[in-house]
Amino acid sequence: MNEAQSLQQAIDEPVRLVDYDPAWPTRFDAECGRLLRRFPAELLDVQHIGSTAIPGMPAKPIIDVMAGVASMAVADALFEPLLGFGYVTSVEFNATLSDRRWFMRHAHGQRTHHLHVVVYDGDLWRKRLAFRDTLRSDAALAVRYAALKRELASCHREDREAYTRAKGDFVRSIVEPGWDHGRAVR
Backbone phi, then psi, for 62, in 5-degree steps? Predict the structure, then answer.
């Protein structure tokens, strides 16, 4: 498989959850170190987010990395350097994002990493860490989220965007004060 075929297969990859893999934190550490060595002045902090950062959580086997920068101008300045550092992205998709820039790494037709470049300690930064930390500390809530993810993955296997949107109420119930938890988990 050539590079173009690998990328297209990764882009079209269906939603597939796997059981938690204890190697995921090590994979994050390796990518974190690689990013910090290449961009030591630009990246103020790098955090492991998403389901692979929550012990015991089933997940798509893609390491979600959140890199904090001083401003969206810095995020935009990193666009081309990240493309030269093994990441790919859609310019059109990123044009729809006001609070982050999104990149992907892939190998052998599968996504390996998603990189979310956001303003350090900004609203999105705080919400993503709050979500991760809440699920790490509340086992009952994590079990509810895992069940929801499994249900949604079976319903939206061929539509990643629909899968992500369908988790939105649950995520908001954790990170937005006053959101009704009961509405988020059916």
Answer: -130, 125
Per residue in 35-87, pLDDT (tens digit) is: 999 999 999 999 999 999 999 999 999 999 999 999 999 999 999 999 999 99
Size (the chain), residues = 186
Q: Which two tokens stand for residue 82?
A: 């990240």
Superfamily of domain 3-178: Beta Polymerase, domain 2 (3.30.460.10)
Q: Are 116 and 83 in contact (CB under 8 A)?
A: no
Look at residue 8 in the predicted model and tell me its pLDDT: 79
Structure tokens at 131: 């979500």
What lies within 8 Å, CB to CB, of 117 at 6+ separation is 67, 69, 75, 78, 82, 100, 101, 102, 103
Q: How far apart are CA 9 and CA 4, in angstroms?
A: 9
pTM of the predicted model as reported, rounded to 2 decimal places? 0.90
Cβ atoms 92, 52 nearer than 8 A? no
**In contact, 17 and 150? CB cutoff 8 Å:** yes
CB of 68 closer than 8 Å to CB of 118: yes
Domain boundaries, the chain: 3-178
| Residue stretches of the chain with pLDDT short of 70 | 178-186
- How many C-beta neighbours within 10 Å does residue 134 have? 16
pLDDT at 186: 34
